[in-house]
Amino acid sequence: MTTHSEDEAPLPHSTSSAPEPGAHTDPQHGDTQAGAPGHAHGEGGGTLLGRWQGLALLVVLLAAATIGFSSRGVCTPVGADASSDVFSAARASEAAAPAVAEPRPVGSDADAEAHALLSDRLAELGFETTTQESIGTRTVSGVDTDTGAGFGSAGYTRNLVATRPGTDPTGTIVLGTHIDSVPNAPGAADAGVGLAVILETVRALGPEAQRNDLVILLVDGEEPGLLGSQAFVDAHAGDLTEPVVVLNHEARGVSGRPTVTRSNGPMHPVYGAMPHPEFESLTGALFEFIPNDTDFTVYREAGWWGMDMAITDDSWAYHSPQDDAAHLDRGTLQHYGDMTLALTRDLAQRDLGALEERAGEQPVQTTAPWGIIALPPAAVGVISVLAPMALLAAVLVRRRRGELTLPGVLGGVLAGLGAVMFGAGAGALLWEAAAAASPEMLSQTTGEPVRAELFFVAELMAAAAVVAGAWVLARILITRQALLHGAAITMLLLLTSLGLLLPGLGMAMILPAAVAAIGALAAVLLPPAVGLVVRAVALVVVGWTLGAQISALMEFGIASSAGGLAGTTILTVAAAAPLFLGRQVRARHRARRPHRVLIPVLPAVLAIGLTLGASAVTLASPEPIQERVTAHVDGSSGQTTWEATGTTDWGEQLDGATATTELEPLTYDLRADTADGRTDAELTITAPRDASECLLVPEEGTLTDVTVDGTPVDAEGGLGEVRIVGVRAGQTITIEFSLAAGAELTVRETIFEPSLAGGWTEPAEDVSLVQPRVTVSSTIRTS
Fold first, then answer.
1. What are the CA-CA distances from residue 530 to residues 53, 499, 535, 536, 582 (Å)?
2. CA 300 – CA 248 distance, rounded (Å)
3. Averaged in consecutive runs of 10 residues, what is the pLDDT profile of the chain (783 residues)?
4. 341 contacts: CB under 8 Å, gap ≥ 6
5. What is the pLDDT, as a whole number, of residue 8?
6. What is the bridge-based pairing of β-strands 639-644 and 629-634?
7. Is the link from the previous residue into 740 a cis peptide, with omega within 30 of 0?
8. 656-709, pLDDT tens digit by residue?
9. Can you tell me the distance from the alpha carbon of 90 to that of 200, in angstroms, rounded to the nearest whole number?
10. How many CB atoms lie under 10 A from the CB of residue 29?
11. Which of 449, 683, 699, 741 could form a disulfide with 618 if both were Cys (CB 3.0 to 4.6 A apart)?
12. Rounded (5°) CA angle 334-336-342
């Protein structure tokens, strides 16, 4: 006699279960017909194999996901005693250490000292170095959606350019990053990691010239608006042998696996040169929707080919005093350097002109265990269409066999849609609740906690609670087969839409989903044993991809991707759900067991407990609590009001405090001429301090025809604000502009030394000040 588990065999004449609407029922035994009589005890029935294969397949999925997750580790750091032709994290760190010892805002003494140190080091390595001093400008149009006004930036930048001519150049290789950091952050990662990688890379290359021209471009003024890179492109892009290929180095965290976040031009033939190839078109597509920007944007606009590379894990330290050498992960630095050295060696000897032949391909790319897959967008579209067709074919075969009904599958579609929507929403809401309850654990720049791992597990538990709830409720009305196939159809249709409309976003997930759909179809067509193998192989593909995606999302951060991990996991697993059903599965009954409603309670309780535990672990971290403070000073009276985030007792006491500040103000002289409703003005400003910023804001309307020391700064629709950075003490600048007649102009100086303002008290050692500032505002009448 074969023993059935509770959910595998129907209970004759039981009132706690009923067949799915539309299914045929044996009136004598209350059993839903599953096709031919001989199929009643097939692969999915009561045999030992049938009972245990679902668990075995789940183990396969989890094992593959674990391997995929682990595949995204970083390299073991190499010591200073390594061979001279390899990259050494120890040597790289030592070479860059003097330049990243303290904050380097543009226009500061530290910025100038780092520039000089780097220039000397590159000269020692055999490069010819020059300094480009200029005014870099960049504008963004339409920032103010009401008036159409833009935002303009100008900065006094000093770029460091080091060159080594090639022996037979077919183009130029540019290794780029930026020297400056934000105020009060040493910038050991952003972008000190780029400085370290580049210095050690060119050392490992040796003093001999390569085939192609090699340029080291270390720009200034990246942080306040990509000013140095824009200045270089405007003045010297035409001096480089084309095509130009740039490897730009950035950081948004202090650890994690370095990745190519964006690319331009025919770089897909080059990716294989990396020792650990990884690239996702997904990241480039997402970059268009996030607020961050890098110098690569300027280079791409100039027509350069290349790659934008970055690290993103532990972004809680981004733009803070904790972005220092002590927190920069050596394994990350080693991995970054291995990538750059391998790519540079390949590009330096490659015929860059030959890449032009492949410039029109523009494939969509994703990473597989063996390397990077590149497909034409049209191929992604075809796969996106064929995947749901394969699954629908499997549904029709099972329907013909009597294993499910179309109304039941429709119910599964709705259940799947609800699960992914509410599952992702539950994960996001859980994080938002934790962040609101303990704001002191958050970074003041990215909103990330110091320790995020348990928060991610909690998000998965929240998603599991929602999925379990959807499962229990749906099983009251429909069978297991209908539910799993319907949920998979939902996910495939969502991914199909993404693959057709935005192939770059969709490819990473549509490929494993397509493999799962084909596996589901094979499972109903092939003999049971062969079908089992096919399903296991398909789950390996799905699991590896899911593990890699979970790793990447965790590096991106819980605050930056809240709900994304839950949504991605539900989408991926649900798309593969039919793989857990074999060919000859007897039709399951609806499961009217009210006590099963309690099943979602366990993961829900775990989600809440894990969130509380994650908050406690983060708050117990030895890292200081971050505070952001600003002193607002009236330039005419010295009246000062402090503003602080108040995440510490010190911040709470400072927030709202008032005092009087005695501070040497900006000195200025205004000449104005009014005619035809407009005032043409010339404003001369002398700065009393180094590295200060000056902001001009008209009371009404916009500024037009703006120049800073003769350099145009303008945007279509005019400028609502103009910011000038990198000003040194005693420097006089002249700003010309036009504005509405009679309009007042606010001139605001920003200083990054809070102790200069009245009412300042030093915080305790467990408080980390993130870009503290003093703003001194004065109003100028232009008429």
1. 13, 30, 9, 10, 10
2. 11
3. 38 40 40 38 46 88 97 96 97 97 96 98 98 95 72 96 98 98 97 98 96 98 97 96 98 96 94 91 75 90 97 97 97 98 98 92 90 92 96 96 94 97 97 96 96 97 97 92 96 95 90 96 92 95 96 93 95 96 61 71 96 96 96 95 96 97 90 92 92 91 94 88 94 94 93 95 96 95 81
4. 86, 87, 200, 201, 204, 205
5. 35
6. antiparallel
7. no
8. 999 999 998 889 999 999 998 899 999 999 998 887 899 999 998 899 999 999
9. 10
10. 10
11. 449
12. 100
State the CB neighbour count (10 A cutoff) for residue 212: 26
Q: How far apart are CA 347 and CA 373, in angstroms?
A: 20
Query: Residue 75: is it exposed, middle or buried by C-beta count within 10 angstroms (0-12/13-18/19+)?
Result: buried
Positive or negative, the CA dihedral 285, 289, 294, 300 is positive
| C-alpha pair distances (Å), 762 with each of 14, 756, 770 | 74, 12, 14
One DSSP character per residue, 10-32 reads: --TT-SSEEPPTT--B-TTT--B
Specify whether the CB–CB gap between 161 and 240 falls below 8 A: no
Structure letter (DSSP) for residue 195? H
Give CA–CA dist 580/578, Å, rounded: 5
d(CA 554, CA 568): 12
Alpha helices in 660-703 (DSSP H): none
Q: How many CB atoms lie within 10 A of CB 307?
A: 26
Using an 8 Å Cβ cutoff, are 487 and 395 in contact?
no
Q: How far is CA 729 from CA 159, 235, 638, 655, 782, in A?
A: 20, 26, 21, 30, 26
CA–CA gap between residue 157 and residue 165 (Å, rounded): 25
Return the pLDDT at 353. Answer: 92
Q: Provide the whole-model pTM.
A: 0.91
Residue whose entry in the numeric block shows the structure tokens 């399903």 = 535
Q: Which helix (H) or strand (E) holds 721?
A: strand 719-727
For residue 629, what pLDDT is reported?
97
**Three-state DSSP state, 95:** helix
Residues counted in the chain:
783
HSE value, Cβ hemisphere, 13 Å, CA-based, for 609: 7
CB hemisphere CA count around 538 (13 angstroms)? 27
Paired strand residues for 178 = 219
For residues 549 and 572, give the distance between their C-alpha atoms in angstroms, rounded to a whole number. Answer: 10
Residue 783 · residue 679 · CB < 8 Å: yes
Which two structure tokens, joined as six digits, stand for 24? Answer: 């045929």
Between β-strands 773-781 and 629-634, what pairing exists: parallel, antiparallel or unpaired? Answer: parallel
Alpha helices by DSSP H, listed for 620-731, are 649-654
Tokens 């994290």 belong to 89
Rounded-to-integer distance, Cα 449 and Cα 439, Å: 9
Single out the residue of 402, 418, 352 nearest to residue 19, CA to CA.
402
Q: Using an 8 Å Cβ cutoff, are 334 and 76 in contact?
A: yes
The continuous run of DSSP H or E covering 481 comes out as: helix 480-501
SS (H, E, C) 374-392: EECHHHHHHHHHHHHHHHH
Predicted pLDDT at 51: 63
Per-residue confidence (pLDDT) for residue 147, from 0 to 100: 67
Nearest Cα neighbor of 322 from 249, 255, 257, 261 is: 255
Transcribe 578-638 into DSSP letters. Answer: GGGS-SSPPPPPEE--GGGGGTTHHHHHHHHHHHHHHHHHHHTSSSPEEE-EEEEEETTT-
Q: ∠456-326-83 over CA atoms, to 5°?
A: 105
> Among residues 542, 250, 495, 527, which one has the least CA distance to residue 386?
495
pLDDT score recorded for residue 596: 74
For residue 291, give the nearest of 504, 143, 173, 69 by alpha carbon: 143
Using one digit for the tens of pLDDT, what is the confidence trace for 339-369? 999 999 999 999 999 999 998 888 999 999 8
